[in-house]
Fold this protein.
Amino acid sequence: MPFLRFPEHFLFGSSSSAHQVEGNNVHNQWWAFEQEPGRIKNGDKSGLAADHYHRYKEDFADLKAMKHEAHRLSFEWSRFFPESPTQLNPEAVRHYHNVLDTLHNLGIEPFVTTLHFTIPQWFAEMGGFEQEENIRHYLDFVRFLADEYGRKVHFWCTINEPNIYASFAYIIGEYPPAKKNIRTAFRVLSNLLKAHGRAYHIIKSLHPASQVGLVVHLPVFAPLRKGSFIDKLTARLADWVFNGIILEALKTGKIHFPAGFFEKHDFIKDSNDFIGLNYYVRMFASPKHAVATALNALDTDLGAFRRTGSERLTQSGWTVYAKGLYKCLKRLHRKLGLPMYVTENGIATEDDEWRKIFIRKHLRQVHKALEKGMDVRGYFYWSNLDNFEWSFGFEPRFGLVDVDYANDCKRTIRDSAWFYAEIIQQRGFWQDEKAKNESLEQIFPQEIQ
Ligand code: FCB
């Protein structure tokens, strides 16, 4: 049984986002949303979150101890420009310099996301990404970031998961502004793609050597009933609407939505030096579910949409399907032919043994992609810390590090973190544990019981 070795330049790390860990991001639209009753599970509010804003040094020291080589984090727009597009908050500027300096001093490569679901409340009040003319405010922010931090940041992720942002905020209604309107969702998606394309060129014009890419979330769509033609067709359709349109836009510059919406923008084509993949889930499609989604009545049983039988569910109601990660990498490779980073992949569970199995299984798939010659350059586990999981609140535990919210956010590094650290340190792992012990037995016979 072989040892699955990852290349020397391959980056192992973890991913996070500002609002989910920092605490007290009081000037963004999520904060306002959380104050409305019934929006977040158990009435949770992000509040102090994991208090990472004050404890980033401790958290980054933990990353180092856990052998991470890179860390993906987001810069919170509403901290820089809390009240208006022009009033800059110098404390935020200093803070993120300190954040970057701390990472660099530890030898951890930062990947900075400029927009991870949160927008300043003033921007939300002017319609956010619903209005095309508002994009310029985001671009001003990006220009500011590239100008201020460009010498310290080599890797930029522009926008996190445009399809999740548009669908959860404008179809499913779980994210602010919780509108349910498919046309608006498409407009927002199209504006996010335009914002990404423009942001790419802004950063590159200021720092040509930097690496800039969009982060896409690709669920795998499968037919609910295996042999059913109509379910297969629905799965294809859902895949096209949710994933395909974005990939096509990145490849050709064409944004082509159902019902005749069509635009072509050359600045979206070739707007990635790499592509970030967030992979979590397989979704099972049937016409009933598709119609329910389209009619935005998906407060039906999401569980049924995510599993076919009695598969074990994670705390976010997902099943584990590691092979899907390989499928998505292969798809991206074929469609875009770009270097790829798995910018997020993780599991919400209190069962830390399950997390270890999850990591192994998914890294196995990444390795398979490497074996097939695909250009995968890194893997970021979501997340280093337990955090505020949007409308799920604090219940899902994704972290390699446990955060005890009731006890001053005390951190405890989980076993799975050490398990992952060992993989990083050895630059790989034995294909199966039994083989590992057997081969160790040959080397150190007395030490293996
Ligand atoms: C992704 C988000 C991230 C986190 C994970 C679990 O869709 O990018 O913020 O919530 O899911």
User: Anything to note?
Assistant: Residues 439-449 have pLDDT under 50 and may be disordered. The chain has one domain: 3-448.
